[in-house]
TrEMBL record:
Membrane-spanning segments: 20-44, 70-92, 113-132, 152-171, 192-220, 240-263
Name of the featured protein: DUF1206 domain-containing protein
Keywords, in A-Z order: Membrane, Transmembrane, Transmembrane helix
The organism's place on the tree of life at top rank: Bacteria
Domain DUF1206 stretches: 24-92, 110-175, 199-267
Listed InterPro entries: DUF1206 (IPR009597)
Originating species: Glaciibacter psychrotolerans
Length: 270
């Protein structure tokens, strides 16, 4: 008898190949975070002119690295696998930790899955010789929304959502809630992973919160140039007091999260 779609999905989710490739997705994510963090530091020190401090900017940097084409294809496949695993987890996984609802598990897994699939699409675009700009795409979307009846409200809601997610990331880092996602090793290794996770999540949260604030400003002023995503948010720190120091700290934090993601590839509960 032919297997049902649900059985086929469960078989796919439980396959060793998909799990291995999904773990590789965390490695690819870590690499992108390290590159973005490095670009942020370069911007703060005046050596990063012309670079985008976001995912597309990081992938563009990969194209210039030795073996860059191989890395892009590997990242695209890994992101696709992790995205698919998360989508399957949203539908099939009933083993969440009991401290959150089934609905929260579904929403979080679906959102993360979609994000990784978008990253995969961007990586495929670069691997096939194309180009992409996250900042330009986000700004174009913001401009289109602001010109649409009721669009300002949508931009405002997006800003609030981004601010909320950023705040949650800071909370997740400070409270060490990220430990629910991994098998924390004992001893000194465990302490190191906790420090990496705490610093990394806080830095990601601050950056994402800044994106949310810019969306709110864009909605309030009807200015789509404010809705430029992560790149615009990080560059905005250059125009505020002590912004250079903050941007360097965020860059270090993103590099720290990248290192944490390497450990997560081994320790993640998949």
């Amino acid at each position: 008898m032919a297997s049902s779609p649900k059985q086929a999905a469960q078989t796919a989710q439980n396959s060793t190949a998909l799990r291995v490739l999904a773990r590789a997705g965390f490695v690819a994510s870590g690499l992108l975070h390290i590159i973005i963090g490095s670009i942020a530091i370069a911007l703060a020190t005046g050596t990063g002119s012309g670079k985008e401090a976001d995912q597309s900017g990081a992938l563009a940097q990969l194209t210039q690295a030795p073996g860059g084409l191989f890395l892009l294809w590997a990242a695209a496949i890994a992101f696709t696998s992790l995205g698919l695993w998360l989508l399957l987890s949203a539908v099939l996984d009933h083993s969440w930790d009991g401290k959150r609802s089934r609905a929260a598990h579904i929403v979080e897994s679906l959102a993360k899955g979609i994000i990784y699939l978008v990253l995969a699409f961007t990586a495929y675009t670069f691997a096939m010789g194309g180009t992409a700009s996250s900042a330009q795409s986000t700004s174009t979307m913001g401009a289109a929304l602001i010109k649409t009846p009721g669009g300002v409200v949508i931009v405002f809601v997006i800003g609030l959502a981004l601010l909320g997610v950023g705040g949650y990331m800071v909370f997740k880092g400070v409270s060490k809630r990220f430990e629910r996602d991994i098998r924390v090793p004992s001893g000194l290794a465990g302490s190191g992973v906790r420090i990496l996770g705490t610093v990394g999540y806080v830095a990601r949260g601050v950056a994402l919160g800044a994106v949310g604030v810019l969306f709110l400003i864009g909605a309030a002023t009807h200015d789509p140039s404010k809705t430029t995503g992560l790149d615009g948010a990080l560059k905005s720190f250059l125009s505020v007091p002590f912004g250079v120091a903050v941007l360097i700290a965020i860059g270090v934090g993103w590099i720290t999260y990248g290192i944490y993601a390497f450990f997560r590839a081994r320790l993640a509960l998949l």
